[in-house]
Amino acid sequence: MATEREAIPADERQQLLPPPTPTESAPFSAFTPCQKRWILFLTGFAGSFSPLSSFIFYPAIVPIASSLGVTVGLVNLAITTYMVVSGIVPAILGSAADKIGRRPIYILALSIYFVANIGLALQSSYPALLVLRMVQSAGISGTISLGYGVISDIATPSERGSYVGIFALGPNAAPPCGPVLGGIIAAKLGWRWIFWFLVISGGLCLVMVLLALPETARAIVGNGSIPATERDMFVLLLCNGIFYAACACVQASLSSLFIQVYGYEELQAGLIYLPFGLAALVSAYVWGKYCNRTSTVSRANMPQGKFLDFEYARVARAHGYDPDEAKKKLMDGFPIELARLRSAFYIVILTAVGTIAYGWAVQKQVHAAIPLAIQAVIGFNASAAFVAFGTLLTDLNPGRSSTAAASSNIIRASLAAAMTAALQPIIDAVGAGWCFTIFGFVFALCGPLIIYQIKIGPKCRELRGTKQAERTMLLAGEGGQDR
């Protein structure tokens, strides 16, 4: 009779197996003392922004209330909502960090925080203040719990007391320093500069994390000696998240701008979404595919005309692979990133240009047909990009596509929440033209990311394959011992 281990398919066993735990001959952490101190500094720096964002706000309550024309009690409500969100989000981010790594979640959290602070510095209405304070909290409140997770990754139980003590210096410096700093900034520069200060300091922390924080999650890198081979996956998820968030901003602005600029009624404001939606529907059909590339259906019986299938076959022929064989399985060495993303690069450029054109068309109050036609262009290209990103995400995660999709949703929903919260304050501050010029450049960021993904993808897949082979050998050894 088959054992429980043997009843699980081999490919699933390979994915369920955790990284090898350190043996007696391997240290608990492969990071050097100097690296540990640097990691501790970065995590403490990031963790300081959660309480700092709360305490630095207090001296500005009265000036903000006076500037926005509301009562002090209503501004105090922004403190309450900040605390409520800070009690919920850390559990979500902590769980995500355990699954996909500390570093990606740090980058996501600090990115949301950065965008929310820009919105807070620019906003001029109480609802925007309330919403953006919640987004600010959602971005930064999880950094303290993430820091404790990092400490558990790199420090033995006997070391953790001193590590936690050093890490806590960052968050504990906020209560005495935050109000003093907030009072000085509000008195000398005005309350908006409190948030500009957080933009600058939080942006600096984000850059430092991007450049110099290694992955520590033991489920991914073990004691630090296993390379995090998920770099290509994070680039893809980030690119998809940026694209989704920027599209959400374009769509969120449509009805309000057309009501304000063109005097549309509510029914008309609903109908103007049709060009984007219909174009996206057509694009999904043109760019998508009916048959999975692993299908054994012969090419003659496969529906033709799907662009990604065409690109896949063309790349296969160009690199010496038989297209029919390549459709049955992902061949070793096949440049799948190139096959999926080569056309997406041009799609990104068209979407960026279209977004900029849309903003200026609305601001210049040209005929409504022009921005609506541009919306159709954006919808067609955006849908094509999502098909390409989603297909590659499935290609790279054949046995864990649901987990990959869940990770994608976390990143894109968080980025979209932050960017849409900052949307109206930016429009109010600089106008629709410059606002969507900014979002056009946000779209354009995906271009270099795509090039980077195509470059690093094959090497990352090779490293993943090596690591999976090592885990399979370990599982085989354990299975032999069981028998």
Tell me about this structure.
Keywords: Membrane, Transmembrane, Transmembrane helix, Transport. It is found in: Membrane. Residues 39-461 form the Major facilitator superfamily (MFS) profile domain. Residues 1-14 have a biased composition (Basic and acidic residues). With 483 residues, this protein is mostly helical. 79% of the residues lie in helices and 0% in strands. Helix 7 (126-140) packs across helix 21 (401-444), helix 16 packs parallel to helix 20 and helix 19 crosses helix 21 (401-444). The longest helix has 44 residues, at 401-444.
SSE diagram, text form:
Elements: H1 4-7, H2 10-16, H3 33-55, H4 61-68, H5 72-100, H6 102-122, H7 126-140, H8 143-154, H9 157-167, H10 169-172, H11 174-188, H12 192-212, H13 218-221, H14 231-262, H15 266-271, H16 274-287, H17 307-318, H18 323-328, H19 336-363, H20 369-396, H21 401-444, H22 446-482
Helix pairs in contact: 3-8, 3-11, 3-12, 4-5, 5-6, 5-7, 5-8, 6-7, 6-8, 6-12, 6-21, 7-21, 8-9, 14-20, 14-21, 14-22, 16-20, 17-19, 19-20, 19-21, 19-22
